[in-house]
Amino acid sequence: MSRFWSAVVHGLTPYVPGEQPKLDKLVKLNTNEHPYGPSPRALAAIRAATDDSLRLYPDPNADALKAALARRHGLQPQQIFVGNGSDEVLAHAFMALLKQDRPLWFPDITYSFYPVYCGLYGIGQRVVPLADDFSIRVEDYLPQGGERPGAIIFPNPNAPTGRLLSLTDVERIVAGNPYAVVLVDEAYIDFGGDSAITLVDKYPNLLVVHTFSKSRSLAGLRVGFAAGHAELIEGLERVKNSFNSYPLDRLALAGAVASVEDEAFFQESCRKVIATRETLVGRMRALGFEVLPSAANFIFARHPQRDGAELAAELRKRAIIVRHFKAPRIDQFLRITVGTDEQCAILIEALREILGR
Ligand SMILES: *Cc1c(COP(=O)(O)O)cnc(C)c1O
Question: Given pLDDT bands bounded at 50, 70 and 90, which one contains residue 263?
Fold first, then answer.
């Protein structure tokens, strides 16, 4: 607390990111990073860009990256917005598109940054409970009895549950709310879902946000993007150009373009994570865990006989870090990132020991 803080700062409840411990030899399964590292072509491009040209500002419009993403997704460059991580893209979307007179609707269990941005920008919220099986019910997001949303946001697959909503169901929500922007945060879609980017030509109210942090294994580079109708994108550009003209530096631009162009590496590295996830889910269930169906690079699991916080603490003693949320409805769950086969084997061994099996 400081008397020099503005009233806004006094009222903020900031987001708390998963920890990044400064220790070696940890089995780090707490922040959904990709275990296999970025495309070698991305790394080579970043090295090649590390030269005297760093004295120059980067391209403020990120044209090369927008062109690469547009090609990859069959869109026009004017339908793409890029930012310093998808968190920044989301922040600008909250300001530019989701701040309306009516409240923003989102699930009770979801990415915990959404209520933080609502607080920062003074956006009214309506929290919509997930079903008992932690799925999103489409009906809950359709206008009901004169009540309709100012805008809607949800991750698909949802975080931290990992549950996927089918593309048909996503489309029902978008089509059912022609007067509201529907933002689908697809941070994990490459691990098992069909992207709603294929729908942006059809629906002017749909914005789809992706990140390079998870499926492209570039969390350290800070790159994210949004795809949507050119008018939505222009709204985002207006906020971005009122905030920071150069959110993506030269190295990030070079690495991101090369990553997008290395489709084979991308497909293969996602495929490996999916295969490991399926094995991990089977082994966790064999240990008695209830595991929600996951289409992400993490799983969400609870044990009927053991407390979630206690399990997380026991794992930590063995240098294995997973994420535990002290939040209503989910405080018995662990969110576990899908690591390498070896990391997952270490996890299973540790759990077997902790459970006394
Ligand atoms: C990880 C994550 C993000 C943020 O990704 P960055 O691009 O690293 O900022 C956004 N949304 C969800 C649901 C995430 O899990």
Answer: very high
**Atom number of ligand 1 nearest to Cα 211:** 7
187 CB near ligand 1 (under 6 Å): yes
pLDDT digits (tens, 9 = 90+) for 151-205: 999 999 999 999 999 999 999 999 999 999 999 999 999 999 999 999 999 999 9
Instruction: Indicate the pairing of strand 125-128 with strand 104-107.
Output: parallel
Together in a domain, 315 and 182: no
Supply the mean pLDDT for the chain. 97
Domain with 27, as residue range(s), is 7-37+264-355
Give yes or no for residue 255 CB within 6 A of ligand 1.
Answer: no
Q: Check if 171 has its Cβ closer than 6 Å to any atom of ligand 1.
A: no
Last residue of a domain, one of 213, 231, 262: 262
Same domain, 221 and 295: no
82 lines ligand 1 (CB under 6 A): no
Report how far ligand 1's centroid is from the alpha carbon of 209 (Å). 9
**Residues 285-295, mean pLDDT to the nearest whole number:** 98
C-alpha 30/C-alpha 212 separation (Å) is 17
